[in-house]
Amino acid sequence: ASPISSPSRAGFLTGRYPARMGIQGVFYPDSYTGMAPEEVTMAEVLKVQGYATACIGKWHLGSREKYLPLQQGFDEYFGIPYSNDMSAQVYLRGNEVEEFHIDINNVTKKYTEEAVDYIRRKADQPFFLFLAHSMMHVPIYVSDEFAGKSGAGIYGDAVLEVDWSVGRIMETLRELGLDDNTLVVFTSDNGPAIKFTPNNGGSAGHLRGGKGSGWEGGFRVPGIFRYPELIPAGSVCREIGTQLDLLPTI
Fold it and tell me: 3-class SS at 130?
């Protein structure tokens, strides 16, 4: 819905154009505004259907308490409430700061551990987990286990760690017998920050532009869906879709 973070996330969660919500730029730690609590989010819609709901990771829709995930339909929240390039990095749990001094190199690992724990705790009921990794947002960070392992610089190392994270989550779903009846969506909030070089902002490949651009490179992102009960393995949809379609479709 947007080539930058906050409006894109607002569109994904509500199915509404960000401009209709007055969200056309990003929020900062000292911002007095955020996505209005009156907006109806995917979490609120699913909660009515009996789903447990959690957000883990980057929120970036307002960091004052009235705008945090617990006020937008999520039962639980853990993460950094804004981008990792902004000052005063903290981990929130619910509405409270849990850690004032965080090890940002282990942020992907930490989010993955929290996600696996949540899935295990909610395995016996329907659940919605919005896992929003801070990577691949610049500046790029990676844990010691993956540093130098990709052969493609720190950006490649961080991609490798996010890939590990996805695998860990899928492994957990399989262990619990949930993988056939769970819709897993992998996507991004905007295109790569190509102005950061060398190799630290990613690449849009053959697409023109990147993050912050109105060209296709700013908007066109991966859209990978896994749901064996309804989606045939290996199938490809070439129709145009947007993240605004996710809430009404789900």
Answer: strand
Rounded-to-integer distance, Cα 25 and Cα 13, Å: 16
What order do you get walking across the sheet with 96-99 strand by strand? 96-99, 91-93, 76-79, 52-57, 127-132
Q: Let me know: does 23 contact 6? Beta carbons within 8 Å.
A: yes
Q: In this predicted model, what pLDDT tens digit does every residue of 203-248 receive, in sequence order?
A: 899 999 999 999 999 999 999 999 998 999 999 999 989 999 999 9
Query: Under a CB-based contact definition with an 8 Å cutoff, are residues 51 and 124 in contact?
Result: no
pLDDT tens digits, 30-83: 999 999 999 999 999 999 999 999 999 999 999 999 999 999 999 999 999 999
End-to-end CA gap in the chain: 17
Helix (H), strand (E) at residue 96: strand 96-99
Name the helix (H) or strand (E) containing 53.
strand 52-57
